[in-house]
Amino acid sequence: MAEVPLSRHGRIWSFTDGRYRPPAPYVSDPDLPWEPYTLIAAELEGERMVVLGQAPPGVSPADLSVGMRVRVVPGVLGEDAETTWTTWNFEPVSGS
Predict the structure, then answer these.
(1) Residue 60, CB half-sphere, CA atoms under 13 Å: how many?
(2) Cα Rg for the chain, rounded, in angstroms?
(3) Are the C-beta atoms of residues 9 and 69 closer than 8 Å to each other?
(4) Which end of the chain is more exposed for a tag (fewer CB within 10 A), N or C?
(5) In terms of residue numbers, what domain contains 43?
């Protein structure tokens, strides 16, 4: 296997909301109330392949539409005193 850089921009292919607490290895504090999150399947511009990721906190399905342009931004999946688990998020690009 080899690391390959991917496009940072794409278009929404599909989206939905996650209203359940996923099982491990998803990082989630069972002592905190569950917060729904938004999932986006985005087709990357250069590769023309669909990749699944979360939207940043505060972006709901009501804010999205199929075909909307998005960009990859860093995100935090979870953290504790010793570790921050990072991920990517698909953020809508205004004016798309």
Answers:
(1) 4
(2) 14
(3) yes
(4) N
(5) 9-21+33-92
Q: What pLDDT was estimated at residue 95?
A: 67
Rounded CA separation 95/64 (Å): 12
**Is 2 part of any domain?**
no
Name the DSSP class of 63: G
Whether residue 26 is contained in a domain is answered as: no
Stretches in the chain below the pLDDT threshold 70: 95-96
8-29 pLDDT, tens digit each = 999 999 999 988 888 877 777 7
Q: Which of 20, 5, 12, 3 is nearest to 55 (CA)?
A: 12
Q: Look up residue 20 and give its DSSP letter.
A: S
User: What is the C-alpha to C-alpha distance for residues 96 and 90, in angstroms, rounded to an integer?
Assistant: 14
Residue found under tokens 């359940």? 20
pTM (predicted TM-score):
0.84
Would you state the structure tokens that stand for residue 67, as one six-digit string?
A: 């075909």
Taking a C-beta distance cutoff of 8 angstroms, is the pair 30, 54 a contact? no
